[in-house]
């Protein structure tokens, strides 16, 4: 969807962050028309509705939109694991990094969005090194597998696992299973990419024809694909087995839990069972995120101010050069010409001193918009505005969502 929005001109840059329990879009809206943000939201909602089969109005109503300073604050919070089902989990950091890399490969990552996501990565590292948040190494997958151990105790080296999905989260699931000693892992994908996935990550691919037999063999079935439609309960053989559904859009019909000797673990189960981080760790992490968001906005305002100052100086100097040329044309060269020019240039620099100092002061106070609006009104200069707009969208289960012009992230 990001590629489509950029190719049609609705966005000048876009990054899609899709994980097991969130779907967010960050985009840069072209131009400075505030209505462009609203149009981008509607365009995105329409695309989501068309692909998901959901009503467009429902999609719009369930979107959480962030713009301006709220965009970096939201992304920095997410990448630090503060909005995850397991607070402090570190898998989200890699998922955010991969989202940016994918956008770069597809050509949708604008320079301003790259700056935003790189700042997010730095913030996550700062949270990781300066707080105890997530130091126990908990993740959604690890908590889910702990629950599986509690429900159906057994030795992982003797268990057979069947994983649904071939995305990054399926890869993380494979790694977690191997860490526990599970060696017999089969992989199924409705997209047909199981063979390619297992060639890279190990395990055995399962085709559509082989799926019923694989389900009968599996002691643990883990869904992390988020397919278009949940697998019906009547496809599953009766237990004993544990079914773990980590997909935001469920991989399995909840009625699976009603099958004899079948235990179902869902994202909601993981959320309830996740260990709570200490208040001190969470508070320290949020303080780091707040300061990082403020620094990002201040730096961006400063860059916008630099452009404003350059634009004002260019405009003023061009007026001066034009007037000096008129003097030369009408009066020719005189012995005093050089001295006059030097004096006039010193005068212009003196006149520019106060506006330049004031620009720095306003940028530090977060009032760069006022300065730039004033320049545009007084001189008719077109200066990239520091205003940022963004939308991050996510379904209700866990809703959440560069200098000329400054970045707008739009969902």
Automatic annotation (TrEMBL):
Any one GO biological process: protoporphyrinogen IX biosynthetic process from glutamate
Binding-site positions, NADP(+): 165-170
Catalysed reaction, written as an equation: (S)-4-amino-5-oxopentanoate + tRNA(Glu) + NADP(+) = L-glutamyl-tRNA(Glu) + NADPH + H(+)
Domain Tetrapyrrole biosynthesis glutamyl-tRNA reductase dimerisation: 284-381
Domain Glutamyl-tRNA reductase N-terminal residue range list: 9-131
E.C. designation(s): 1.2.1.70
Region of interest (Disordered), ranges: 383-411
Alphabetically ordered keywords of this record: NADP, Oxidoreductase, Porphyrin biosynthesis
Quinate/shikimate 5-dehydrogenase/glutamyl-tRNA reductase domain span: 147-270
Annotated PROSITE patterns: GLUTR
Keyword Glycoprotein: no
Domain notes: Possesses an unusual extended V-shaped dimeric structure with each monomer consisting of three distinct domains arranged along a curved 'spinal' alpha-helix. The N-terminal catalytic domain specifically recognizes the glutamate moiety of the substrate. The second domain is the NADPH-binding domain, and the third C-terminal domain is responsible for dimerization.
Anything else known: During catalysis, the active site Cys acts as a nucleophile attacking the alpha-carbonyl group of tRNA-bound glutamate with the formation of a thioester intermediate between enzyme and glutamate, and the concomitant release of tRNA(Glu). The thioester intermediate is finally reduced by direct hydride transfer from NADPH, to form the product GSA.
Family: Belongs to the glutamyl-tRNA reductase family.
Subunit structure: Homodimer.
The protein, known as: Glutamyl-tRNA reductase
Native organism: Kocuria varians
Encoding gene per record: hemA
